[in-house]
Amino acid sequence: MYNAICKRALLGSVFLAMGCASSGPSTELVDARRAYDQARMGPAKDLAPDRLQGAHDALAQAERAHADDAGSRKERDLAYIATRKSELATAYGQLNSDQRLRKQQEENYSQTQDRMRKNAEQRADNSERSLQAATGALARTQSEVASERARADAAVQSLRQIASVQEESRGLVITLEGSVLFATGKSELLPLAQQKLDQVADALKQGDSPRIVVEGYTDSKGADDANMKLSQARADAVRSHLVSKGVKADSITAVGHGEDRPIASNDTPEGRANNRRVEIVVQPASANQQAKPAATTPPTGNTTAPR
Amino acid sequence: MHASTRLLGFAVLALTGACASHNGPGAASADAKAAISAAEAVGAQSEPQAALHLKLARDQTARADALSRDGKDEEARAMIERAKVDAELALVLTRDASVRAQANDEAARVRALEQSN
Q1: Which residues contact B11 (CB under 8 A, 6 or more apart)?
Q2: Could you give the C-alpha distances from A110 to A12, A117, A151, B108, B115, in angstroms and in order?
Q3: Given Cys at both, which of A5, A19, A161, A274 links A264, Cβ 3.0 to 4.6 Å?
């Protein structure tokens, strides 16, 4: 046994001497050097430095074996192991890098979830605010409608104090006695009539641009033509006064009906007094479309178009 | 260093340490075979690069056994050392492939989440 070892040692020394003299590094050592160079250029330098150090040490062992016995099996074995350790260092560096990447992606997922949840909450908040704004606007509109209705009711109440006011299918009909407005046979407004019409004008201006028709009527005494002219002239006078007090000219029409459409008997003085009248028909804004043709082309009588 | 990597290194060190605590190549061979089993357990045979090193480790372990039977203990030990680093490399490469796939899956989940919005 001892002899065998001595023989081997001697043989090794001979090979070592030969290797030093003539042999370069083994293929395995060349591979080991290259693998280490690659490892220290990769992620192992920062992410697996202890493994890279291990690879360095393994390569140093292989280099010593080469120096001691170039081309020996030991050199090749150690170089092989050094190669693998360099590859291991690279693999560990890559593993750490990928673990960081995985952690980053997990955080990205979590952050994306949070961002989307916040966006959804923001959208819900915006929707809630929009709903509240719409609800507020509706409440304001309802309030405005109520106020408008209250103003209209107040205007009607005001009119009731100076004239007869009735709700009819053709609209709100304000009836003013002819004797209050005009002297007999005349179409000029009396001073008292002007004061009353001022109040009527104030009430009419409260409405939401209603369509207004001023209708003049007479009793049956006198000639028809004369009654027709007189009723038209009186309707025109009332219309002109209302316009002068701020009622929109393009919303008001004057029509003379003469002795047509009596509301009382013309056989008695009281009846004739009632028939001598001016009616101001206020058509609601929603009925304007239907009312317009009737106002411009009355079935009977003369018409003064809006001016 | 990530916890799982530390655990992995610990396992490998334990195997290496176990090897160092025995003198005969037979025991060292058992350690190499344990390292091979560990690589197989994580699925090294399914990863091409890892599978290559797993095969090298198996071949070298078989060769070490043969050398040992021939009384060539020193060569057997060297072959076992080679087998062990190949087995460890197979293990780490497999583990890395798994982690990389998980990272890619996470990235895909993020994209899917963003597209669903």
Answers
A1: B38
A2: 64, 10, 61, 13, 15
A3: A274
d(CA A271, CA A220): 10
Average pLDDT score, chain B: 84
Same domain, A8 and A135: yes
A140 with A204, same domain: the answer is no
**Chain B contact for A113, CB < 8 A?**
yes
Residue A245, both tokens: 């007090």
Which residues of chain B neighbour A77 with C-beta distances below 8 Å? 78-79, 81-82
Highest CATH level, class, for B3-116: mainly alpha
Give the Cα separation of A212 and A288 in Å (integer): 9
Percent of chain A surpassing pLDDT 90:
51
For residue B96, pLDDT beyond 50? yes
Nearest CA to B32 out of B99, B90, B72 is that of B90
Dig out the tokens for A95 from the structure.
């593993």
Residue A251 reports pLDDT greater than 80: yes
Q: Are residues A294 and A168 in the same domain?
A: yes
| Interface contact B78-A87, CB threshold 8 A | no
Residue of B49, B34, B37, B36 whose CA lies nearest to B100: B49
Q: A149, A172, A199: which is the final residue of a domain?
A: A149
Segments making up each domain of chain B, as ranges: 3-116
Domain membership of residue A112 as a residue range: 1-149
CB contact under 8 A, B96 and A105: no
pLDDT, tens digit, for every residue of A21-40? Answer: 447 999 999 999 999 999 99
Say yes or no to pLDDT of A76 above 50.
yes
